[in-house]
From TrEMBL:
<dbReference type="InterPro" id="IPR036291">
    <property type="entry name" value="NAD(P)-bd_dom_sf"/>
</dbReference>
<dbReference type="InterPro" id="IPR020904">
    <property type="entry name" value="Sc_DH/Rdtase_CS"/>
</dbReference>
<comment type="similarity">
    <text>Belongs to the short-chain dehydrogenases/reductases (SDR) family.</text>
</comment>
<keyword id="KW-0560">Oxidoreductase</keyword>
<dbReference type="Pfam" id="PF00106">
    <property type="entry name" value="adh_short"/>
</dbReference>
<dbReference type="InterPro" id="IPR002347">
    <property type="entry name" value="SDR_fam"/>
</dbReference>
<protein>
    <submittedName>
        <fullName>SDR family oxidoreductase</fullName>
    </submittedName>
</protein>
Length: 256
């Protein structure tokens, strides 16, 4: 695994780390030298990923985390601090979809989506920032928060209006939090991936509709998960000390 930026000495909490991008980021950060705290509701899966990191020579801890529950968020940070010390690197990655026409999406599905994709990001980022500020991040300038957005926040007619709107919401949230904490040594940045095959899409890309979607991309392919690695590591490392409030598209040209 190519590691362009070191995270040695950092402690990273990754929300939504049980599968897909979150699990990938956890292994990436472990290889980059960070202490990795994997948070998700599916603790059996995060325990498996944590074990892989440890076997590979890294440090990792799986903790229960429901991003929609403030008490669960607080408990996850408490467990992380007890094991590794203050979390200085936060990845707000947990997300769900509610694909389909907006006229068909139930209120229950909509509330789950907003609770996870927006409120969950808010709670995870806020709790991390509270603890960093209390531990003199203003002087250390060591706080790093990365929000995982989506290129759907910039597109229309993609078949998941609520998801797209939630990602647009956290993009603006990220800029506001960056402004609020700019003098507190806490950087907040957002990365917008393109379409990547993960669990959230199910088998969509194996269907005729999914194949047509891929054929419509300029490069006729899905984005590779590893294409996010360099930017994720950069935003989480000491090298990005002067970068906050940014909104970065990394999508293999899909949104052009």
């Amino acid at each position: 695994m190519d590691i362009p930026f070191s995270l040695a000495g950092r402690t990273a909490l990754i929300a939504g780390a049980s599968s897909g991008l979150g699990a990938h980021f956890a292994e990436l950060f472990g290889a980059a030298g960070a202490n990795v705290v994997l948070g998700a509701r599916r603790t059996d899966r995060t325990a498996e990923v944590a074990e892989k990191i440890v076997v590979a020579g890294g440090n990792a801890l799986a903790v229960p985390l429901d991003v929609t529950d403030e008490a669960s968020v607080v408990a996850a940070y408490d467990a992380a601090e007890a094991e590794f010390g203050v979390v200085d690197t936060i990845i707000a990655n947990a997300g769900v979809s509610a694909a389909g026409r907006s006229t068909d999406v139930s209120l229950d599905r909509l509330q789950v989506l907003v609770g996870t994709n927006f409120t969950g990001v808010y709670l995870v980022a806020r709790e991390g920032a509270k603890r960093l500020i209390a531990n003199d991040s203003r002087t250390k300038e060591n706080g790093r928060i990365t929000i995982i957005g989506s290129i759907t926040s910039r597109l229309t007619g993609e078949g998941d209006s609520a998801y797209a709107a939630s990602k647009a919401g956290v993009t603006h949230l990220g800029r506001n939090l960056a402004r609020e904490w700019v003098r507190q040594g806490v950087n907040v940045n957002t990365i917008h991936p393109g379409y990547i095959a993960t669990e959230i899409q199910g088998d969509w890309y194996q269907t005729e509709g999914g194949q047509k979607q891929i054929a419509g991309f300029h490069r006729r392919r899905l984005q590779d998960m590893a294409s996010l690695d360099a930017m994720m590591l950069y935003f989480s490392s000491d090298a990005s000390q002067s970068v906050t409030g940014s909104d970065m598209v990394v999508d293999d040209g899909q949104s052009l």
